[in-house]
Structures are given as structure tokens and as C-alpha cells.
Design goal:
The chain is mostly helical. It is built from 8 helices and 4 strands, in the order ααβαβαααββαα. The two termini are about 25 Å apart.
Length: about 170
């Protein structure tokens, strides 16, 4: 995956050691286990800095496929840790708050990368067999086909997992 978001250098300190790890992590789609969609350039940047009012909705700039990546639950946690450590000041507080919510913490000052990687492995192990099925329907609600996972649906439909997740999240 090519990181092409035009705002990545405005949201993230690309010279930071965690930014390099973050870019490497979000440069590859996860394809197994329970998959979540992650915004490469955070929603907080679009909402709070660019004042985009329709974030997380179809057609919004933050939902462009080049800004979305499919990550395992554990990798998603790790991505937010890296973001918290490399976000530029304009969104650093929002990234810290997002990580606190995901990790269920009130204080992140003592959390280490090692702690997060350990928790990442625990999450991926716990969720490895949870592969939510994705069903495809006609506009009138007739079932067309059921796929074993988001990745399987994306592969069959020749599109990105992010596109599937956009539709699935709309129910």
C-alpha cells in the first residue's frame, strides 16, 4: 500500500521514530482475523484542523480509500499508540485521548511500546477466530452471497477492505 494522503506530513511528525513504525504498520492491509478500519490521517485532523463537518460519512475526505487501512484489532491498538507518540502538536491531545479510550487508561505516561505490543498479541489471539461474515444483498434485500470475512468479500469484489467496511458500517 502506498501512503499517499496529502495531509500525512501535516498531522504526523515524519522525523519521529514512532512515525516510521506507524508508516510501516499502516502500509500493509491485515487480511486474517477480526479486521477493523483505521484512518491513516486521523479523523481529528480533518475535523479539528480542516473543519470537515461530515467526517466518517460516505464521500467525506477522511473516508477516501487512500486514507483507510484494514488492521487486526491488535494492530489497530498499536497504530493508535504510534499515532499518540508521533502526532504533531495540533492533534496530539486528541490522539492521546483516543489511545486512552482504546486501551482503557486514564494515564498514558508510563505505558511503553512493549506493554502495547504484549496487549496487541493478546488481542489478536483472542480475536483470531472471530471472522465476521459479510453478506451481499440486492437493493431490495435479496441475499446474493455470504463471504467468510471482510477480506474474502473484498477479494471477490475486487475492491479494498476499506470500501467493504464503509458499506458494512452503514448497515
Amino acid at each position: 500500500m502506498d501512503i499517499k494522503s496529502k495531509y500525512i506530513d501535516e498531522a504526523i511528525d515524519l522525523n519521529n521514530e514512532y512515525a516510521k513504525k506507524y508508516i510501516k504498520l499502516v502500509s500493509h492491509q491485515d487480511t486474517t482475523g477480526f479486521i477493523e478500519t483505521h484512518h491513516i490521517v486521523p479523523v481529528a485532523f480533518y475535523r479539528d484542523i480542516l473543519h470537515v463537518s461530515n467526517c466518517r460519512t460516505r464521500g467525506s475526505i477522511d473516508m477516501e480509500p487512500s486514507n483507510l487501512v484494514a488492521l487486526s484489532k491488535g494492530h489497530h491498538l498499536l497504530a493508535h499508540y504510534y499515532l499518540m507518540r508521533c502526532a504533531k502538536k495540533v492533534i496530539s491531545k486528541q490522539m492521546e485521548n483516543a489511545f486512552k479510550l482504546i486501551y482503557d487508561l486514564t494515564d498514558v505516561s508510563k505505558i511503553t511500546e512493549r506493554d502495547v505490543i504484549k496487549r496487541m498479541h493478546e488481542l489478536d489471539e483472542a480475536y483470531k477466530n472471530l471472522k465476521p461474515e459479510v453478506s451481499q444483498y440486492t437493493i431490495d434485500g435479496t441475499l446474493i452471497k455470504t463471504y467468510e470475512s471482510v477480506y474474502a468479500a473484498a477479494t471477490a469484489m475486487n475492491c479494498s477492505t476499506s470500501n467493504i467496511m464503509i458499506v458494512v458500517s452503514k448497515k
